[in-house]
Amino acid sequence: MFYSLTWRKNISKTLKIKEVPRTAKFKNQHFLGTVTHNLFTKCIIVSKFCLKASTTLHDQVFEKLMSSPMRFFDVTPSGQILNRFSKDIDEADTLLPFFSDQFFKIGGFVVMSIVLIILAFPLFAIAMIPILALFILLFKFSKKGIQGGKRLDNVTKSPLFSHIATTIQGLETIQAYKMEREFQCRFWKLQDLNSVALFVFEMALRWAAVRCDVLSLLITFSTFFFTAVVPKDVLSTSMAALALTYAVAIGDLTQAMIRYGVQSEARFTSVKRIINYIEDLESEAPGIIEHRRPPTGWPEEGSIVFHEVNVRYREGLPLVLKNISFEVKPWEKIGIVGRTGSGKSSLALALFRIMELDGGSITIDGIDISTIGLEDLRSKLSIIPQDPVLFIGTVRYNLDPFNMYRDKDLWSALRKCHVKHTIKTLAGQLDAPIVENGENFSVGERQLICMARALLRQSKILVLDEATAAIDTETDSLVQETIKEVFSDCTMLTIAHRLNTITNYDRILVLDQGQVIEFDTPSALLVNESSVFSQMVAVQDSQKHAAVMT
User: What residues form the membrane-spanning segments (predicted)?
Assistant: First the structure.
């Protein structure tokens, strides 16, 4: 633009053309309109492109994470996941577009400035060849160190985030055991490690910037040299002044161009880490398999058959369930007991296909669950875990997140689960807010709300994973009463901690080291004093007696 103005000025002066004020006014208006239109168009295009790219990256990695099997979360620190969705996404969303935009904008200005200088001094093109080669070598050489420093920065952030997340989760336990100092020291150590990596990254940038300044001086010096040696009758004063102006400006701009270019390359490390998640993470089975969907109303009875089931947590680890075989009849209530590590929870995980089978099969009402989609399977099962889960929202949202039931049905489920009075006393009732993890309710109330949620779904199969292990005896009795009243017409698998709660069940399944060692009625097992279940009940009774005596 400035070159064209200078050229027009020289022509006008040579031809003695006078500029009409009105024409100059239109010229300025046209110039401002063109610049405004180009900037506006650029902003729209860049913003839309960046928004679409960042949204696509986030949605893809989030979808991939949500479909990952449980074994991924068992071996992946939470800090690494937080790092992907905080630091890496932020750099891909914000810093990468900014640095790339600045690189191309300044780079375009630098290129046009060099072209203008070459138009003024054609021999300058010869001097630019070695200077350009040095710039390319500097860029390639410094890029490795800068990218390495940035990679170290990202890697050292993951354990730092993990430590912060686990500290927040276990804050009460840390304070109870007076471990604050140890966790502070651990935090400082991780923070120092990350600071060292960040310092290396910044120093690599400074190293490249200093050498870029030296190379930029070569461009400025070359321009001054040609200005001094080129005769005045060959080069006009205005063109020489314009070339010198751009040569001086190139010094700072070239350093900025190289810095922004290397910064853009460094930020692509975050994009690469996100893409690695998208491409490398293993996914669970599809939610719905159209040609293998179960019949409407399945399961009608709730019979379950485990046939020679083998399960391991991950490839290469030992089996946690070994050749498990048993059959549950429709509407039967089965108590599952065993010592810690016997495979009780693994049995439930296998039923929900959270852990895929390593061998054997599980059938529900005659359908092999490995042949249907996960959504079709899990939507027909209900589970009440030991730690009841309530989400941030309202009571209504936690009972009916998909708005499938009427208020009448919600109140009916709450009444049957003996928690209606508690909800009635809340401001807003069904629309009363629930804080994170349901902390504004007691553990027992959360269990009863989870039971109401299971009751609404009218699942034919219900799994209770030590649902009463963490609540008091009174609430336990209320939960047991609720189970008898509202879940009498469904098949129930109860992983029990308090053995007296399952003595009225139809049968008891006893596990030990991943194998079935007993499977009979409670009365038959209790009569046999040599049975493992009978011994477990005797030990628990003696512990209760000792606790009462003390």
Answer: 106-139, 208-228, 234-253
Do 275 and 306 belong together in one domain?
no
Query: Is the model more confident about 431 or about 27?
Result: 431
Residue pLDDT, tens place only, 78-104 = 778 888 888 888 888 888 888 888 888
**CA 360 and chain centroid, separation:** 33
Rounded CA-CA distance 501/73 in Å is 33
Give the span between the Cα atoms of 264 and 255, in whole angstroms.
14
Q: For residue 547, is pLDDT > 80?
A: no
How far is residue 55's CA from residue 106's CA, in Å, rounded to a whole number? Answer: 27
Residues 162 and 253 occupy one common structural domain: yes
Task: Kindly give, in sequence order, each residue whose CB lies less than 8 Å from that of residue 163, ignoring residues fewer than 6 positions away.
Answer: 79, 183, 186, 187, 190
In a domain, 291, yes or no: no
Tell me the sheet residues that pair with 363: 305, 368
Cβ-defined contacts of 423-432 (< 8 Å, 24+): 423/395, 426/395, 428/394, 429/395, 430/394, 430/395, 430/396, 430/399, 431/394, 431/395, 431/396, 432/394, 432/395
Same domain, 374 and 270: no
Instruction: Supply the pLDDT for residue 234.
Output: 61
CATH number of residue 347's parent domain: 3.40.50.300
CA atoms within 13 A on the CB side of 485: 14
Per-residue pLDDT of 220-253, as tens digits, reads 787 777 777 766 666 667 777 777 777 777 767 8
User: What's the pLDDT tens digit per position in 286-332?
Assistant: 889 888 899 988 888 889 999 999 999 888 889 999 999 999 999 99
Range of the domain at 502: 302-549
Instruction: Tell which residue, 355, 352, 303, 350, has the closest CA to residue 330.
Output: 303
User: Quick one: residue 22, left, alpha or beta (phi over 0 = left, psi -120 to 50 = alpha)?
Assistant: alpha
Q: What is the pLDDT of residue 322?
A: 92
Residues 169 and 269 in one domain: yes
